[in-house]
Write a structure and sequence with these properties.
Layout (H helix, E strand, L loop, with lengths): L23 H6 L3 E4 L11 E3 L1 E4 L7 E4 L5 E3 L4 E8 L5 H5 L4 E4 L4 H15 L5 H23 L6 H6 L3 H10 L7 H7 L4 H12 L3 H18 L4 H7 L5 H12 L3 H11 L10
Antiparallel strand pairs: 1-6, 2-5, 3-4, 3-6, 4-7
Helix pairs in contact: 3-4, 7-8, 9-11, 10-11
Length: 279
């Protein structure tokens, strides 16, 4: 049996500005991984199979194009960088983003600063290039997420919720504390709103009710742990279910397969079910 990674205890964190850290709890659970393709690596017709591209903007008009939920054959302007980026399968990060994200780097200086280093490394055959460009690309995606949150460009969904000054503390609490029985009253207090105002605002901005979001978050985490071999009873405790039976019922309703069946499928494959396969 594969050992599931232990879930670290989490306390709400803040960044150097004193504001709550809106991304770390997500990024700890769902690791962003990138593979940058060598320049000129392409398929027929000059189209590169990837889902992140930085167009070659020698005139200062470089643009980042990102398709979070799948690779594209992209044959647009010359690309300084083409990469395959995995945001953790059916993770809240991938689902929070639109089908296509396009950002002119001149409009995002913090993002451009890392993108420029990535482009420089991608073009030069230096020692350790492979590892460097892949890690830099991961940082580019994280800075892209920051940019979308800080500029409020996401109109609805999780990123819009994290950009909302009142909803963000409640969402952070949900992400950092899946084992705690957070109720509507507690979340509304964190948001400095009345219960009714909080519930309505959460639904309008995030696109679902607070209760449904909490359940989906906990079940997503449970599925990853169970696929990695963790006992259902232990997982139930870590995601605030009363026991294995309650988790199994909710799990089956949500995913159409029981934890036992998921474990059987995992054993038949002879390896842990990847996050990508949990779509």
């Amino acid at each position: 049996m594969n050992r599931a990674a232990k879930t670290p205890s989490r306390n709400s964190t803040t960044n150097s500005t004193g504001r709550p850290d809106r991304l770390s709890a997500l990024l700890e659970r769902f690791r962003i991984r990138a593979q940058v393709f060598p320049l000129g690596d392409s398929i027929g017709g000059g189209a590169t199979v990837a889902n992140l591209f930085i167009s070659d903007g020698t005139d200062g008009s470089s643009t980042l194009h990102f398709y979070p939920r799948g690779a594209r054959s992209y044959a647009g302007p010359a690309n300084a960088v083409s990469a395959s980026v995995d945001t953790g399968g059916a993770s809240p990060i991938a689902l929070a983003l639109p089908e296509r994200v396009e950002v002119r780097l001149v409009d995002a200086p913090a993002l451009a600063a890392v993108a420029d280093i990535l482009i420089d490394e991608a073009r030069a055959p230096r020692c350790g290039r492979r590892a460097v460009v892949d890690r830099l690309c991961e940082v580019v995606v994280i800075r892209l997420l920051r940019h979308l949150i800080e500029t409020g460009e996401a109109e609805a969904g999780l990123l819009a919720g994290l950009a909302h000054p009142n909803l963000a503390p409640a969402l952070i609490a949900i992400h950092e504390n899946p084992e705690k029985p957070l109720g509507l009253e507690d979340l509304a207090a964190r948001a400095a709103m009345s219960r009714t105002h909080f519930a309505n605002t959460f639904r309008d901005v995030v696109g679902t009710t607070p209760g449904q979001y909490i359940t989906d978050w906990r079940l997503t985490l449970a599925r990853i742990e169970i696929a990695a071999g963790a006992p259902v009873k232990a997982v139930a405790r870590r995601v605030c279910f009363s026991g294995a039976a309650a988790l199994s019922r909710a799990f089956t309703r949500r995913f159409g397969v029981s934890p036992r069946q998921l474990r059987t499928d995992t054993a038949r494959l002879g390896e842990p079910v990847s996050q990508e396969s949990l779509r």
